[in-house]
Specification:
The protein is built from three helices and 38 strands. It has about 500 residues and is mainly beta. Strands 28, 30, 31, 33, 34 and 35 form a six-stranded mixed sheet that branches. Strands 4, 5, 7, 8 and 9 form a five-stranded antiparallel sheet that branches. Strand 30 and strand 31 form a beta hairpin. It is rod-shaped. The chain starts with a helix and ends in a 6-residue tail after the last strand.
Length: about 500
């Protein structure tokens, strides 16, 4: 009993009487808290109270922290969920009768540094190939207007663009069907770091079907020339996404080329085109909707002329004056029409057109001046080709030919006169001289001259000569030659 009395007296001396135990503890807390700020809590006792032995901090009645010594408590990165009623409790005294108590509650309201961003899409229903602008809309609290924000955009969990940027907009130059998906954005402050995410938005990119297809040809030199390059251009007026172009031969439908690209046109190059490449072609286009087909296009392949060959008809490379010679020029290949020109010592003799191809001939009546070198040229507007030179030799003149024939006629006449002389001698011995004279007088001294016609056969391609031999009353003969432009058969 005595001991108890002493303890009561001792305790009374150390701790003065107070109206309420709650007044001896005070919780110090910040008055304004934004997201990302630090919440520093300090539980303090009033002067004159014994030293605090234990201390604890509470939020909405739940213990946050306990310590066997005096300590503070901090929430380093405040969030909206940290809003609530806070208080602290402490225990003081080391003797039989320790004292404990709680501070008054302090309401802490954590304010938004910036609201959750909202993602907007413009246009909301994009068409393939068209641009789209994504905007992450939010702004800092007016009380923290100097807070620096940065943004990032995502599609199906993957960051777009260059990741974080100070711009709240992201412009996509062209959207394609494979860009369809779930989009959202994030916004954050640099200091303190507070990050928030928008709701997800589904973006469906619409595809435009292909339409108005056409097939065209292009060649570097204008017409399609054998050995040159040929380009088949297939194009559509509309259509989005990856378009598959294919080229086909009309006869078999066999594909001769195929390309897939994100373009309204595609080219198929045919290097070193040949005659077998000529024909009817069409192309197709397909971007996942109904494929379309172009009209049929007929491709003509023109061939340059080959080197022509010049030949001489009968009598060939050696002829005589007055002969008729045929010059024939022919190119073995080349697209018609072909124009042939004939040359004598590089002087043009004439030209002949072959509308359907093949060769051409030129006839020439020879004179002595026609000796020399002959050539021809073939041209079909794709380039001219010249033949090799062919020589022609023309021999003899008209006088030479006349003298030659005259000598032959004289030989025939001499033979005839010899026969007549023998006949007359025989007649003379058989008859009287007067009878012979009366018989020979009409022949030698007749009133009318006797005309003898002798045909001299010529060699082939030599003109036929008719020679007239005339006897006068003095038994002398006269001959002359008549030329006829007639071929020997």
């Amino acid at each position: 009993m005595l001991l108890w009395s002493l303890l009561v007296i001792f305790d009374a001396e150390i701790q003065p009487l107070t109206p309420s135990l709650a007044d001896w503890l005070t919780l110090q807390a910040p008055s304004v808290v934004f997201e990302g700020d630090s919440i520093d809590l300090m539980c303090q006792k009033k002067k004159g109270w014994r030293e605090i032995e234990t201390m604890a901090y509470y939020k909405d009645g739940e213990k946050l922290h306990f310590s066997n010594e005096v300590s503070s408590f901090s929430i380093s990165h405040a969030a909206l969920s940290d809003s609530g009623n806070y208080h602290c409790s402490a225990t003081a005294g080391k003797f039989v009768f320790p004292k404990s108590g709680d501070s008054r509650s302090v309401r802490i309201e954590v304010q938004e540094l910036f609201p959750c961003p909202v993602l907007t899409v413009s246009p909301f229903w994009p068409i393939e190939g068209s641009p789209v602008t994504l905007t992450c809309k939010t702004q800092p609290s007016p009380q923290r207007s100097n807070a620096e924000l940065r943004f990032c955009f995502f599609r199906d969990g993957r960051a777009l663009g260059s990741s974080w940027s100070s711009s709240p907009e992201l412009r996509v130059p062209a959207m394609w069907s494979e860009d369809s998906g779930s989009y959202w954005c994030q916004a954050e402050t640099v200091t303190p770091r507070v990050r928030k995410q928008s709701l997800q938005s589904q973006i469906h990119v619409q595809r435009v079907p292909v339409s108005n297809i056409s097939l065209q040809i292009w060649a570097p030199r204008g017409p399609v020339i054998e050995g040159g390059n040929l380009v088949l251009l297939c194009s559509v007026a509309k259509g989005t996404g990856n378009i598959t172009f294919s080229w086909h031969r009309d006869a078999t439908g066999t594909s001769v080329g195929r390309k897939t690209q994100r373009s309204l046109s595609a080219e198929l190059e045919v290097p070193a085109v040949r005659q077998r490449d000529a024909g009817r072609y069409y192309c197709r286009a397909d971007n996942g909707h109904d494929p379309i087909q172009s009209k049929v296009l007929h491709i003509h392949v023109r061939s340059p002329v080959s080197r022509p060959v010049l030949t001489l008809g009968e009598p060939g490379a050696r002829a005589v004056v007055g002969d008729m010679v045929e010059l024939r020029c022919e190119a073995q290949s080349g697209s018609p029409p072909i124009l042939y020109r004939f040359y004598h010592e590089n002087v043009t003799l004439g030209n002949i057109s072959a509308p359907s191809g093949g060769g051409a001939s030129f006839n020439l009546s020879l004179t002595a001046e026609h000796s020399g070198n002959y050539s021809c040229e073939a041209n079909n507007d794709l380039g001219a080709q010249r033949s090799e030179v062919v020589p022609l030799t023309v021999t003899g003149t008209d006088g030479y030919r006349r003298d030659h024939v005259t000598a032959r006629v004289l030989g025939v006449l001499c033979g005839g006169l010899g026969f007549i002389t023998v006949a007359l001698l025989f007649y003379y011995w058989s008859h009287k001289i007067s009878g012979w004279l009366s018989a020979i007088c009409p022949l030698a001294c007749g009133l009318k001259p006797l005309t003898v016609l002798h045909d001299c056969l010529s060699h082939k391609n030599v003109q036929l000569l008719h020679h007239l031999i005339t006897f006068n009353r003095h038994n002398q003969f006269i001959y002359s030659g008549v030329k006829h432009n007639k071929y020997w058969i």
